[in-house]
Amino acid sequence: MTRRVAVLISGAGSNMAALIEAGRVADAPFEVVLVLSNKPDAGGLALARAAGVEAVAVDHRPFGKDREAHERALDAVLTEAGVEVVALAGYMRLLTPWLVRRWEGRMINIHPSLLPLHPGLDTHVRALAAGDAEAGCTVHLVTEGVDEGPILGQARVPVVAGDTPEGLSQRVLAAEHMLYPQALADFCRTLA
Ligand code: GAR
Q1: Ligand 1 centre from 48 Cα, in Å?
Q2: Over the stretch 99-150, which tens digit does the pLDDT of each residue have?
Q3: Cα 189–Cα 93–Cα 11 angle in degrees, nearest 5
Q4: By C-alpha distance, which of 141, 154, 146, 86 is closest to 121?
Q5: What is the rounded CA–CA span in Å between residue 142 and residue 145?
Q6: What is the pLDDT of residues 16-39, one digit of tens each?
Q7: 4, 68, 109, 183: which could join 139 in a potential S-S bond, CB 3.0 to 4.6 Å?
Q8: CA distance 92 to 120
């Protein structure tokens, strides 16, 4: 069974591109049918369109402080496209309980740290400041607590002497591009 996946982005969309590609190999258990961004200028939108995937921006700014109203607009696009699974990939908005509950058990996220270490932002700066011997990335189910949901997969990346946040971030991102397609495929195979 091929699950219809939407990828939510706010930026460059390199993980999104990896998911689109992985969804096109023979016998993939998912296909990326929609890319959604809260930022109309997100680079990933053009990348998705160039790859032949429907890409829509639902700008959060006109909704002001009403996060749920923005999410209801996003959700309408997801529903219209017949989406079954949502993959957050550099989607940099906190979600309200409404959207989390709406997609409970069907929404996953990638985070650039070895959770439960370093939830939130600036993960690589914090990993280096903490003197961590290794960094990495985590794919997890989305629950109401930020970066707290059950872990579906992790990839480890050694910290090297003289590492910088930029260098570490690039090596972790390369690991993300391998981890996320595999974790999403495994997750889709577990769905009833
Ligand atoms: C990735 O490193 C992803 O793990 C991170 O943003 C980057 C997006 O890059 N996500 C978070 O920090 C979520 N809190 P991409 O747009 O090139 O995939």
Answers
A1: 16
A2: 999 999 999 999 999 999 999 999 999 999 999 999 999 999 999 999 999 9
A3: 80
A4: 146
A5: 8
A6: 999 999 999 999 999 999 999 999
A7: 183
A8: 10
162 vs 29: CA distance, rounded Å: 41
Distance (Å, whole) CA 42 – CA 39: 5
Of 109, 138, 169, 176, the one to substitute when testing ligand 1's pocket (max ligand atoms within 8 A of C-beta) is 176
* 93, two tokens: 């908005």
Other beta carbons within 10 Å of 186: 13
Instruction: Identify the three-state secondary structure at position 181.
Output: helix
Tell me, yes or no, if 111 is annotated catalytic: yes
The owner of tokens 């990896």 is 18
Measure the CA–CA gap between 6 and 146, rounded to whole angstroms: 20
